[in-house]
Design a protein that fits this description.
This protein is mainly alpha-helical. Helix content is about 65%, strand content about 5%.
């Protein structure tokens, strides 16, 4: 769980996971959401926070950075960035 407001190391870990998720989401979608990579990072931050705050079962063996689950966080960011990337790609046709 992410404590709110996040501490400075948690904030940097959140942005780091969001940058990875934004890159992978753009790679999967083939297009960046609005505002390019910066917009993708903002979307990925929202995706990371949303997915780690959902009441899903937590596993003891899931790796964490500053109490932020890495796998669930990156997947949440990828889903949101890729979804908006696919939407923008389809809308631009």
């Amino acid at each position: 769980m992410l404590q709110l407001p996040p501490t400075l190391p948690q904030f940097f870990a959140l942005v780091f996971l969001a940058a990875i998720a934004a890159f992978l989401g753009e790679l999967i979608a083939g297009a960046a959401p609005d505002f390019g990579f910066f917009g993708a990072i903002i979307l990925a931050v929202f995706g990371v926070v949303i997915l780690i705050e959902l009441p899903l079962p937590q596993f003891d063996f899931e790796p964490t950075i500053e109490d932020i689950p890495i796998v669930r966080g990156v997947l949440g960011g990828i889903f949101l960035v890729a979804g908006f990337g696919f939407y923008r790609k389809r809308r631009s046709r």
